[in-house]
Write a structure and sequence with these properties.
The complex is a heterodimer of chains A (293) and B (136). Chain A contains 3 helices and 11 strands. Chain A is α+β, with helices and mostly antiparallel strands and 293 residues long. A 9-stranded mixed beta barrel of chain A has the order 1-2-3-4-5-6-9-10-11. A two-stranded antiparallel ribbon of chain A has the order 7-8. In chain A, strand 10 and strand 11 form a beta hairpin. The longest helix of chain A is centred in the N-terminal third of the chain and has 12 residues. Chain A is globular and about 55 Å long. Chain B is 19% helix and 31% strand. Chain B is α+β, with helices and mostly antiparallel strands. A 5-stranded mixed barrel of chain B has the order 1-2-3-5-4. Classes of the chains: A alpha+beta (293), B alpha+beta (136). At the A-B interface, strand 11 of A face helix 1, helix 2 and strand 5 of B.
């Protein structure tokens, strides 16, 4: 089943850079199977080769290969993604358990902006309180959903499933999902606010432009508590310059929380030879009890 | 103070804050302010239970303190999903195993900590795996 799903996502009519039936590539494929074959029988499919991926002679994925396209020529963002974090050890000790790949934007979404995010006085007050409380009111701490655009930066994986009329984003955290309608419908007027709001997408050349409204009034954008409110309109401009890289420019226009519109760009790296893993936060949330004496 | 200098100091403060949280790093779902990341606890004992569930795995360790009293410590680990991507399984540490655990204690509770290091009874690190990452 996994093989079929991966093949569907990664093999496209125009751009599949590798013909897996080519006899010239059999030695490479056999080498890859030999290298990875010893781990195929392990638990889950964490080392199972994703089919339809162009590979180097070493068997590693050729992530610099052209991005795949759908049969109608649009960029295909389908695949499994994680924040593009360098593979270095964050820990100081060899046996440190807490090494984790983490986007810096997870803490502060505006960390790469020279002057940071342009908070209104209302936002500054909100953040002052949130900081003073050690971030314990963060909805994420209480296992609330991985709201976008914050969800791009969280340390869980996202699977994009793209069809002509809809893009679906599946998030490991709480098994969450987000729909982006690509069928030309307008954004809703005065919608009931939700964790991810309401999203529609349109194409601007090879860039998918996603507009979102209807976000709840009490959302956090990062661990330090940058707010986003019901007044927000979010525009995400998504590009896939290569097979392995997706760039997302997130523009936020939220006059309640910010003195002016702002944007940041984050990068996502394609994850291959692995799978989504279920992470249901409420299963065993045991940290919030520690906030009280 | 000039604005540039003020901004510089703010950025420095932000960087210092970031470095502090990166010391222990794992934000599967919370800020870790419930732990005193500057303090350190080190114990040796016997694993009594492994709770392999999201958002964080926990292991429980019986430790005999200086007064001869047995105390059951709780240690928070990263999420099982993170651990599995690094090669651990729910059986990597089992009840009955002798372990040495180092970590940062909870601020408001005794015998609870977030683990930074787990070694076997002979001091051999049990946690050396890293996630396979292909960089685009």
């Amino acid at each position: 089943m996994n093989r079929m799903r991966g093949s569907l996502m990664m093999t496209t009519k125009r751009s599949s850079p590798v013909n897996c039936t080519s006899h010239a590539l059999w030695p490479v494929m056999m080498l890859f199977v030999l290298v990875t074959g010893s781990v195929v029988a392990r638990a889950q499919w964490l080392n199972y080769p994703t089919p339809g991926i162009p590979r180097l002679a070493s068997g590693a994925p050729d992530l610099k290969a052209p991005a795949p396209r759908t049969p109608d020529g649009k960029p295909d963002f389908s695949g499994m993604w994680f924040a593009n974090v360098p593979s270095r050890d964050f820990c100081r000790e060899k046996d440190c358990i807490q090494e984790e790949r983490m986007a810096r934007e997870q803490i502060n979404l505006g960390i790469k902006l020279k002057d940071g995010l342009p908070y209104t006085d209302w936002s500054k007050e909100q953040m002052k309180t949130r900081r003073a409380n050690g971030g314990r009111e963060d909805p994420h701490t209480y296992c609330m959903p991985p709201n976008f655009p914050r969800a791009w930066t969280l340390p869980q994986h996202i699977r994009v499933v793209q069809t002509p009329g809809m893009m679906v984003l599946l998030h490991e955290f709480n098994g969450a999902y987000r729909e982006v309608y690509l069928d030309g419908r307008p954004l809703p007027v005065n919608p009931n606010p939700t964790w991810n709001g309401y999203s529609t997408g349109r194409w601007d050349g090879d860039t998918l432009v996603i507009e979102t409204n209807g976000i709840r009034d009490d959302m956090w954008l990062d661990i330090q508590g940058s707010p986003i409110t019901e007044a927000a309109r979010v525009t995400e401009r998504i590009k896939r310059p290569t097979l392995g890289l997706m760039q997302i420019e997130i523009a936020v226009n939220d006059p309640k929380a910010y003195t002016k519109p702002w944007s940041v760009t984050i990068e996502m790296a394609l994850q291959v030879d692995t799978q989504m893993l279920e992470e249901i936060c409420m299963d065993n949330e045991r940290d919030t009890r520690l906030y009280t004496k | 103070m000039t604005r540039a200098r003020k901004n510089g100091l703010l950025h420095l403060a932000a960087l210092v804050g970031l470095c502090l949280v990166l010391v222990t790093g794992a934000f599967a779902h919370h800020s870790q302010s419930e732990f005193d990341l500057r303090a350190k606890v080190e114990v040796e004992g016997t694993v009594t239970k492994v709770d392999w569930r999201s958002p964080h795995a926990w292991i429980y360790v019986d430790v005999t303190d200086a007064k001869g009293q047995k105390v059951n410590w709780s240690f928070e680990l990263p999420s099982p999903t993170t651990l599995m991507r690094r090669g651990w399984t729910r059986d990597s540490v089992k009840p009955g195993d002798r372990v040495q655990v180092a970590g940062a204690p909870a601020r408001n509770h005794s015998a609870i900590a977030i683990a930074n290091s787990i070694k076997d009874g002979n001091g051999k690190p049990l946690f050396t795996g890293t996630t396979q990452v292909y960089e685009p």
